[in-house]
Amino acid sequence: MNKYVNDFLLMFQFLTRIPVNISLKCEKENFKRGAIFLPLVGFIVGGIQWLIYMLFFKVTSLGIAAIFAVLSGILVTGALHVDGLGDTCDGFYAFKGKDRIIEIMKDSRIGTFACIAIVMDIMLKVNSLAYSSQYSSALIIIAVPVISKFSIVFLSFVGKPAKSTGSGNLFVGNMSGIVVSISAFIAAAIIYIMLGLKVTAAMFITAVIITLLVNKYSESKINGLTGDLLGANNEIVEIFVMLVYIALYKI
After folding, report:
1. What is the domain partition of the chain in residue ranges?
2. What is the rounded average pLDDT for all residues in the chain?
3. N or C: which end of the chain has fewer CB within 10 A?
4. Residue 129: count of CB within 10 angstroms of its CB
5. Residue 69 and residue 79: Cα distance in Å, rounded?
6. What are phi and psi of 161, to 5 degrees?
7. Any idea which of 7-11, 118-122, 130-134 has the lowest mean pLDDT?
8. So what's the pLDDT on residue 74?
């Protein structure tokens, strides 16, 4: 199998719950090379959400369509990023020190802060999606996961691992400038074709700023990043990108 096909399928298998019943090479180098395809994985996930949205919009209301679009994204990704957001909030707001924070983040049980974060995440996404698609293009549904997946690559590049082991280390500290550049080019090309230059620039500026802030905050809490932080950043970037997109059409 071509190494790039292998690495794309590896990313698709790792980040979604859509079956890929093929034996794939999954060394650290495969994850590094495969990271360039994360925006394409986001494009597929967003495409599924867009199809679900359009289907329900034709037979129900805009609000219900937005709910099912957000729900489909969670189901397709196996709630991977939402779980990361919840675990991060449980750990970060326990105020117990680095080791205890990481221990709490690894706990499969859900705490108060995780519950609040997940509810707010879903509410903000549903309302932002319903509003933005009403007043502009529903293609924002596809663009959002494209830019958020790029932010995972960028965060992995600028950050450092908080632990010596963990699934997050397949990405964190394993990226190169070339990988980030190619990933950025793919994401920018997709968003530009769908929504134009102004939206593309606004999304990238927002994603980069939020990602740098998340990285800085993570360093202050646990001296680095974990896989949960990658998922949390994905969710936070998606929310802020949609809010900025709405602001562009309100100004």
Report:
1. 35-250
2. 93
3. C
4. 27
5. 14
6. -65, 140
7. 130-134
8. 97
% pLDDT > 70, the chain: 98
d(CA 133, CA 138): 4
Give the mean model confidence (pLDDT) for residues 92-106: 84
Question: Phi, psi at residue 225, to the nearest 5°?
Answer: -125, 155
Return the number of other C-beta atoms located less than 10 Å from residue 127's C-beta.
16
In angstroms, the Cα distances linking 59 to 47, 54, 65, 95, 120 are 19, 9, 9, 47, 27
Query: Residue 251: pLDDT band by 50, 70, 90 thresholds?
Result: low
Encoded amino acid at 114, one letter: A
